[in-house]
Every structure is written in structure tokens, then in C-alpha cells.
Amino acid sequence: MTAMLEIRDLHTKIGDTAILDGLSLTVGSGEVHAIMGPNGSGKSTLAQVIAGHESHVVTSGTVTYCGKNLLELAPEERAREGIFLGFQYPVEIPGVNNAYLLKAAVNAKRRHNGQPEIDAFEFLKLARARMSLLGMDPGFLNRGVNEGFSGGEKKRNEILQMAMLEPRLAILDETDSGLDIDALKAVAKGINALRSPDRAIVLVTHYQRLLQYIEPDRVHVLSKGRILRSGDKSLALELEERGYDWVREAASA
Amino acid sequence: MNAPAIRQDLLAAAVARLPDNGLRAQRELALARFARQGLPGTREEDWRYTSLQPAVDLSNAWLASQPRAVLPGDVPSDEMPVQPAQRAIDAQWLRFLNGIRIGDTLPDPGTISIGRQPDDDRSLIADDGLSSLNAALLYDVVHIAVPEGVTITRPVGLLLANDASENASVGMTRIVFEVGPGASLDVVENHLSLSAEDSFAGVIIELRLARGAQVRYLRLQECGEAQVLTGRLQVRIGQDASLRYTSIDLGGALVRNDVAIDLVAAGSDIIANGLYLASGSQHIDNHLRIDHRVGPARSRAAFRGILHGRSRCVFNSKAIVYKGADGTDAGQSNHNLLLSDQAEIDTKPELEIHADDVKCAHGATVGQLDEAALFYLRSRGIDADAASRMLTRAFAASVLGDLSVAAAADYVAGRIDEHLDLLVSEPS
What we know:
- Chain A is of the alpha/beta class.
- Chain A contains 8 helices and 12 strands.
- A 6-stranded mixed beta sheet of chain A has the order 6-9-10-3-11-12, sandwiched between helices. Chain A has a 4-stranded antiparallel beta sheet with strand order 2-1-4-5, with helices on one face. Chain A has a two-stranded antiparallel ribbon with strand order 7-8.
């Protein structure tokens, strides 16, 4: 079986600062992986590099996605090929209507796949169904993208975009941060609804909290730009109990 | 630099050739004033960034060609083709060619009275070089009055066309609105050029709002790329009257738009917003001045600009709160998006406050497209060009959202979209 995402010995820098330092990771179809680690360990960098953010320079290593060299693709091409990044800090874009962006995104992907554009009726029906699953008011469709949204509303909006775009690989960067318990449950419900054998999900998170609601197949601990330890879901519980220092000490021992 | 000069002898000769239709005395008065005033030069603070040299050159060349007098029989009639704004906006259009109202009849004059400015009205503004030059060269003055308590539902459209193909390279327009107590009116002022030749148009519009009058006013400037245009809107706002003003600049080579709003009684409410799009070597200068003589009253000025190429724009907005004008609430803002590093904006929102109990705020920003927003859109599958277009449109959207004349919203949105497409596709 070929992996959906295969990262080998990845080194990156931003400006003159090295961030990822020999990171390797393999994610298979149907799997849910959690990337955990302390602040500054490179978790968000990993998410951004996969999505194609141009401020990160890959100095060596490879990233292969469905057999393709991902690093050659522009961010929009990656998105159309089925990669979705859920942002830690979703951007507010006043003046761009939420429904307009959702529809443009869905259609960009459909055109790429040689499918006809979605018609207005079908789009609204689909969007309303997805919003109801996430406990979102349909009124959000007519607002500016994330404009004046609360932290929880922004994260729900990210999951709504994911649900509409139906990615093959979703990277969710700290989707749980800043959420109260109700929002966390709603977001987890949305993510779980998208679990499927032909989709992979990578959860980047600081805390184990989200993993109580979304059970990962694999858990990785990232520190100083590389993966120090991997395990099953019990690793997350152990981390919660013993802290990140435990992994770092174990690794340097 | 010295103030640019128009040759007074040639100007006097041109004024003498104009028909004796009742305005002669006022023209002579304005000519004499102009001799003293001259046109403002770049040493004057209000003209620091905008040189009228191109207007002077065009005027002198035109005057030297000894333009003949326009006689009543020369006034163009209905042959001017219907223009895009006329087709798109349901309004009662008054059409002007090079400053002269052409012989269209109003489809539905209703209760508006439209006529010549009364000859005994000596109140024509001639208080600076530009307004005196305008008054000296006027063929006539159109006076539009809305009686007390009347609501005009269909906007009055002013189509101000310039055609320099037959040496008519200078045209002056003067229009006076008198809006009665409690009356309500929408106005669309549309500037355009019918020929590609260089020409200079000077337009002065006076707007007098009586007590409780409500006016929604749209200025839509779509001139050609060889047009020099100076415009002035002089507004007098009575008690409890309100003005919603929007200015949209899309064309022109050198454009100056002066808006002066005089609040002479309490309770008035002004919202003035605007958008200017500039590319190539366009120069667009918007100057606002709001005189809060009495409080309480509210004024808001919010303009946005999108600049590309080597264009240069100027924004200056000054609210003056007079001594004793307590309860004044004045706000001014100007935001600019620079799509090219060779474009230039000089922006100055100003407040001058002489009263104690006031609420005032001002601010200006100049920036590029937000990189974080661009990446966000691209990560959703939108290509880089489309993402830039989306963000540029979004920047303009707040002005469209507050457009003063609702009947023009679709047309204006379409024209802005077309211009933004051209602007964004231009290499920076």
C-alpha cells in the first residue's frame, strides 16, 4: 500500500532560522494522526509547509502526496488536489462573503476534477446541512469571511469549509484552541463525521483534550523540529500525565 | 513654482463673444475678479500636490484659437447618443455637452422646476480663481428647485459629457439645486468624455438644503484618459437636513474634486464616502471641507483609494468645528491600497476644533494586499490572481455597501468591477 502522505527527512527554515530538522512522517488513507508537542516545536510549521505557505523554505527532504511531489505545487493546486489546512488563526476578510468564498472554493476543485460547477440550489442545500451538523446559524453564510466571528465561530467555519470541500487529507492546526466545551464537541462531531477509509486527518494539537472526542490511530510527539516519539492513543494520555519533558529526557538519554 | 496663468486678454475677448443672454453682467464681474485671483498654484497648501498647468495650457490654446460664441441656434439638440448610465439608471436625465444643457425635454418633469438661473440672482459663487473662471465662461446656469415637502422618487440625473473633437476643448458648467423644506431628492452626477482629445471641464454645483431636506447624491466620474476635470460641490445644509454623498472616480487624466459642506444650523447629518481607482499616470485629488458652525450635528467622511501603475492620488478632508458648536460629532477616514510601488498617495484627514463638547476622530492608512488573507484564499483552491481580485474588490466593497443612491447601485458595482479587472491585470 502506498501512503497518502510521506514526509522524509524534511528540513525547513524561515528567514535564517531552521525550524523543521529532519522530520519524517507517514500517514495512510483512513488514518487519523495527532501531532503533539510544546510551543515552538514546529507543529504549525509542519501544517503550513504541507499547505504550501511561501514563507517557509524547504532546504532538504521530500514530501510525497498520493505519489506526487507536493513541494512542486502552488498552495491552490494542493487544495484542488484534496489537501485542506484548518487554520489556527483563521483570517478575517471583510467584504468577501462567506458563501461566495465557499462556492468559489468548491467550484475551483470541481473544475480541477473536470466536474460541472455546483448549482446555487444544490450548494445552499449542502451548506445548510453541514452547518446544522456543526450547530451553525445559516446567517453566517451571508457575513464576511470570519468577520467579527468569535474564536469558536471561526473554528466552526474552518470545519464547515472542510466539510464542503471534502478533502482527502485534512491538516487541522490547533482547531481545539480557544474553544469552550460545547464548541469543542460540535467541532469534534464535524470532524468525526468526515472520518472515512479514503480520507486522512492530521490533528495538530497542544493538549490531549480534543483526543477525548476524536480517537487517533497514531500519536506523534514533535520537539525541536523532529518527531521524538510515536505511539498509539495511550501516548497522548501518558503525555498529559507526565508532560513533554518526559519525552525530551527519554529521547536525550 | 509660479501660479499658472491664463491670458487675461484672450479670456476677455472670449467672454465678450458669449451671447448676451442675461448673464453678461455676472460674467464681466467674474472676469474682473479672475484678473485679481488667478488660478491657485502649488505654493498654496490646498494645491500642493496638484498642478493646474494642464488646465492652463488647454485654456490658453483654446482661447488663442478664438473660439466663436455659442449662439442659441448652436445649442446641440437630441442628437447625442444615449449614454450607458442613462440606459442603466432609471432617472430623469438632464444632459449637458461641454457645459451647455442640450435640448432634451424631461420625461416627467413632475413637480421639479428646471430653468435658467434668474438673471437678477447675483449670488453665483466666484470666490476663487476656478469659480471665477467658470462664471466668466458660462453659457448659462441651470437652476433646479424642489418645492417644500415634495419627495422626488426618481433621481435627477446630470449627464456631463465633454466632446473636444471640434475644438471645444474647454467647457464650463454651473448648476444650482434649491431643495425646499422637508423635500427629498436623489441626484446622480455622471461625468464622461465622448472624444479622445485633451479637454478641460470645470463644473460647479451648488446644493442648498432647506430645513429638514434630505438629499442623496452620487458623483460618478467616468472621464476619458485625456480629460482634465475640476469639480466643486458647494453645499449649504439647513436645520435637521441630511446629505448622503458618494463620490466614485474611475477615469480622467487630472481630476480635482472639491466638496465643501457648510452646516449653518443644528441637527444636520452628513455622510460623505468615496472611492477612487487610479492607474497609469492618472492624478486624482479629492478635497473635502466640512464647516460645523452650529451643534449638535454629525458628519462622516470615509474615502478609499486603490492605486496602480504610476498614478498619484491626493486625499484631504478637513472638518472645522467652530467656537460654540457643541455636540458636534465629526469623523474622517481614508484607506488606501497600493498595488504598485510606483503609485503615490498623499493623504491628510484633518480636524480643527474650537468648541469644547465634541466627539471627533480621524485616521488614514496606506497598505498592500494582506499576505495572510491571500494565502488563506489560495489554501482554499483560489488561484493567486483571483485571490488578489477578490481582496481588491473586498477593499472597495464597503463604499459600495453605503452607496448614496440605491437606484445606481447595480450600474456602479458593474463599472467598478470592470475597472478593477483592468487595474489588477495591469503589470505593476
